[in-house]
Amino acid sequence: MRFRHLPLLVLACVAGTASAQAPEDPAAIHQAILTLDTHLDSPANFDQPGWQITDRHDVAQDGTQVDLPRMIEGGLDGGFWVIYTAQGPNDARGYAVALAHALKRLHQIHDFVAANPQSFAIATRASDARRIAASGQRVVYLSMENSYPLGNDIANLDAFYQLGLRMAGPVHNGTNQLADSTNGEAVHGGLSELGRDWVREANRLGIIIDGSHAADSTFDQLLELSRAPIILSHSGPRALHDHPRNVDDARIKALAAKGGVIQINSLFLSPNKPRPTVDALRPRMKEADSLPPSERAALMRQWAEANVAEPPSDTDFDRYMQAIFHCIDLVGVDHVGIGADWDGGGGVIGLNQISQIPKITEALLARGLSREDVEKIWSGNVLRVMAEVERVAGK
Q1: pLDDT, tens digit, for every residue of 260-296?
Q2: Which domains does the chain show, CATH number per domain?
Q3: What does UniProt give as the signal peptide span (predicted)?
């Protein structure tokens, strides 16, 4: 009689074991892990009159992809917020104009963080990210896309470091005083002598070197010269689409062999398509900031609608994941991350604003990656590189 309930107990134990082994919901995993994107061009939106990072926006209304409400909805804990400067003349006046612009953008980033201390915090160490996220704030690392504003004085890199800069790339769309760009002239055969000094100074200070936009020759020399691992903050595999901004498999393997990471971009994964409406609006967009607020808002809506109606390519979410999977298969989960170029032209069909990024985690889990591997891709790998960059600087 004392064992007559044994089958029920056995069933209960079996049920409990099955429950314990049931896969965790992808949405819950996404919210639990630390998520960072390495290329947020969103500070460019601060130039829009009245635009606030704390307001909810919509890519179909004003073309912007990242703000605090959508970061919360999408479970993005933060990332590297970009000080972007367009390439200009390689002369004293060009450097001065670029430096003023870069400093303005840097201070805009500090200002939005200072104005919203409950929601954002500046991070300067690899160890800061998890602490900040645990406090409920969003992580703000500072990154420089195009080191052209430094001019011919490498000491300027130290000044930006003191103001929080922790990642920098030598070039953007155009060769400058430091290095050759993917779509610029081959002037230096890679890095200039000043560019080599820039690499050494970045290593000394503890700034992550970003090879995105660098010509193949420049990338090779960055990898050879740097004493710390480097990253590609927003690049894709050339195996999917032969575009200069993408990187061939051999170089991705070389990057991984030195401990680096390729953060997968959402651009340049398919051939470009004609965009007649978008192209027709470009001249007006150059004058947008000089328009009265109501006219500017109407133009921004028109621009946003045109970009939704005429995407730059046929790249969709599946194609974006194909790029991620290609790199994982090539070099493993320890050398792949996410840098989709939000607010810098990024986004694909089906993944066009930051609120949609849980789809990435869901797709990674569906492919059989563990929770630990997914977190490496979202943050662990870039923070590992950052910690090594700090260690090298400390030596």
Answers
A1: 999 999 999 999 999 999 999 999 988 887 888 888 8
A2: 26-272+319-394 (3.20.20.140), 274-310 (no CATH)
A3: 1-20
